[in-house]
């Protein structure tokens, strides 16, 4: 049945009919939702995140041993790099040589910058497939990279094949499409984060927020305060050895992410969530005594000493070194759960910490609790409330948005990837409730917060906290497939956000996730292929 459907599918697409091949397979008494009627999506209808517009039609391109990736005779170095990276991404699954050449003439996959294509903006692209090849056009190398990720999904998961004739014209809805990973509660090697960057970039997520410090660990070397990493990094939740990244390793990760058009936003969480720093330096404590390192999972018990000048030397030194490692514009200073810092002290501290960020040429991002203090001009607030968040908190955030502060939306009961899917989920937490795949997808960032217009929403971010996530498979089980839904919420037009259609497109990603060895939750609400 499947072979017949695929052959039928290819014939239709090749013939330019491009219609979605749908056949009602008799599934007998299969009770799974959606099992009764399996629509085999046509290639241009299975793209995720859904593009702004896609149309199948015309003859397809035979992607095979003769395919050349062409970047154009006078292509800038960055375009050649996009071509090389795309070739690398395609060679593995296809097993094809895919040389990269500069000449534009001839069949193949052509990458073309077109500054006149203003409608494509900073990250958009056009992808056009005819018998002679696939032409990727964009105003920027980032757009060409995103076009390449779409092309990957028009190719078979393995081997050579026909890219069906058609055209995609695509631009993102939100500028900030993020994923956060907490490397403080549990230490993870840079290699694991690089693998995550590959996965994020495949679905056009363009920001990696690294939660580098917390009560249980300090994960980045700071030259002027070496014990932060060497002592404060030598533990983690559960009492494991922990670890930390050298600056060289961190720079390598930042460069790796930049090659995939993923900006890194480092977070130094303050004034709360600082036990690792306090344990490393007695002088940071108001009473001059360093607490023990902490390996539990409580929150809100630690605070920097707001009244001590040494604290601000620490803040300046640390944020200065982190800013120097950060090519991107944002520096996240946390600000959440400062339950041991009196409100007036919190506001005074955040005033000074924000001034330090500005001094080092960066823009502040902070958790939305900053709305209760004095957010600096241009400061971005990251909202992590949920359906039970008090109206007062929401209105403080709405007021900050009205005052011009852009918002990143990370609702804990939608976008927190550490929330269990259901009671059977082993890793993760459930303080914000269970978050099944459908719930994680079924919200509209443009109208999610009352009194907050879409124009105030910078974007969305999926956050993976790691109190009880310690391995790659636990990480991937929690992140996939909900990350794909959040990638779509960040990229696709509001009109495309439709669970009945999305669930079929998500199901079609399974062979790709499996080919990449990604552990994922086979949610019952998705008709997995
Ligand atoms: N809230 C804490 C995190 C983490 C999380 C786990 C924020 C901003 C609960 N703060 O989310 O440190 O403990 O789900």
Describe the fold and architecture.
The structure is a single chain. The chain contains 16 helices and 21 strands. It is of the alpha/beta class. 52% of the residues are buried. The strands form 5 sheets. It has an 8-stranded parallel β-barrel, surrounded by 7 helices. A 7-stranded mixed β-sheet has the order 3-11-8-9-7-5-6, covered by helices on one side. Strands 1-2 form a two-stranded antiparallel ribbon. The N terminus is likely disordered. The structure holds ligand IFG. Ligand IFG binds next to loops.
Which word captures the global form? globular
Tally of individual helices: 16
Mean pLDDT, to the nearest integer, reads 93
CATH homologous superfamily assignment of the largest domain: Glycosidases
**Rg to the nearest angstrom?**
24 Å
The order of strands across the largest sheet is 12-13-16-17-18-19-20-21
Going by CATH, the architecture of the largest domain would be: Alpha-Beta Barrel
Strand content: 15-25%
**How many angstroms separate the termini?**
13 Å
Report the sheet with the most strands, covering strand number, pairing sense and barrel closure: 8 strands, parallel, barrel
- Report the structural category: alpha/beta
Q: Per CATH, what is the topology of the largest domain?
A: TIM Barrel
CATH level 1 name of the largest domain: Alpha Beta
Per DSSP E runs of 2 or more residues, the count of β-strands stands at 21
Q: Helix share of residues? A: 25-40%
């Amino acid at each position: 049945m499947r072979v017949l459907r695929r052959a039928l599918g290819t014939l239709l697409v090749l013939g330019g009919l491009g219609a979605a091949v749908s056949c009602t397979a008799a599934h007998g008494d299969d009770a799974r939702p959606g099992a009764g009627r399996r629509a085999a999506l046509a290639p241009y209808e299975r793209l995720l995140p859904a593009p702004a517009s896609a149309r199948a039609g015309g003859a397809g391109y035979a992607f095979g041993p003769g395919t050349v990736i062409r970047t154009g005779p006078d292509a800038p170095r960055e375009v050649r790099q996009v071509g090389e990276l795309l070739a690398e991404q395609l060679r593995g699954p296809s097993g094809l040589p895919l040389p990269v050449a500069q000449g534009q003439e001839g069949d193949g996959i052509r990458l073309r910058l077109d500054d006149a294509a203003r409608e494509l903006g900073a990250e958009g692209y056009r992808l056009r497939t005819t018998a002679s090849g696939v032409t990727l056009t964009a105003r920027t190398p980032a757009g060409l990279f995103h076009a390449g990720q779409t092309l990957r999904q028009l190719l078979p998961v393995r081997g050579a094949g026909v890219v069906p004739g058609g055209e995609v014209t695509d631009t993102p809805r939100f500028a900030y499409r993020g994923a956060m990973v907490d490397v403080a509660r549990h230490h993870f090697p840079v290699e694991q984060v690089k693998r995550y960057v590959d996965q994020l970039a495949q679905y056009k997520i363009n920001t990696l927020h690294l939660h580098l410090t917390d009560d249980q660990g300090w994960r980045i070397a700071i030259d002027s305060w070496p014990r932060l990493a060497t002592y404060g990094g030598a533990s983690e939740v559960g009492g494991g050895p922990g670890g930390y990244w050298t600056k060289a390793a961190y720079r390598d990760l930042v460069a790796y992410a930049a090659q995939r058009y993923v900006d890194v936003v480092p977070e130094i969480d303050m004034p709360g969530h600082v036990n690792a720093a306090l344990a490393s330096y007695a002088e940071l404590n108001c009473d001059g005594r360093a607490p023990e390192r902490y390996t539990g999972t409580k929150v809100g018990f630690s605070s920097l000493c707001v009244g001590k000048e040494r604290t601000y030397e620490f803040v300046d030194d640390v944020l200065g070194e982190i800013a120097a490692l950060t090519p991107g514009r944002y520096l996240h200073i946390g600000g959440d759960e400062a339950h041991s810092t009196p409100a007036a002290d919190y506001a005074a501290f955040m005033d000074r910490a924000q001034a330090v960020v500005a001094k080092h040429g960066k823009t502040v991002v902070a958790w939305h609790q900053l709305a209760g203090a004095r957010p600096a001009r241009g400061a971005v607030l990251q909202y992590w409330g949920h359906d039970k968040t008090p109206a007062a908190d929401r209105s403080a955030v709405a007021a900050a948005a009205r005052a011009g502060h852009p918002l990143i939306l990370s609702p804990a009961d939608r976008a927190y990837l550490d929330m269990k899917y259901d009671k059977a989920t082993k890793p993760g937490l459930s303080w914000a409730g269970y978050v099944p795949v459908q719930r994680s997808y079924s919200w509209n960032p443009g109208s999610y917060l009352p009194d907050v217009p879409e124009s105030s929403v910078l974007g969305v971010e999926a956050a993976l906290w790691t109190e009880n996530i310690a391995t790659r498979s636990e990480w991937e089980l929690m992140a996939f497939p909900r990350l794909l839904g959040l990638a779509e919420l960040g990229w696709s037009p509001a009109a495309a956000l439709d669970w009945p259609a999305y669930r079929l497109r998500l199901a079609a990603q399974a062979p790709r996730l499996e080919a990449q060895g990604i552990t994922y939750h086979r949610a019952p609400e998705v008709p997995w292929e």
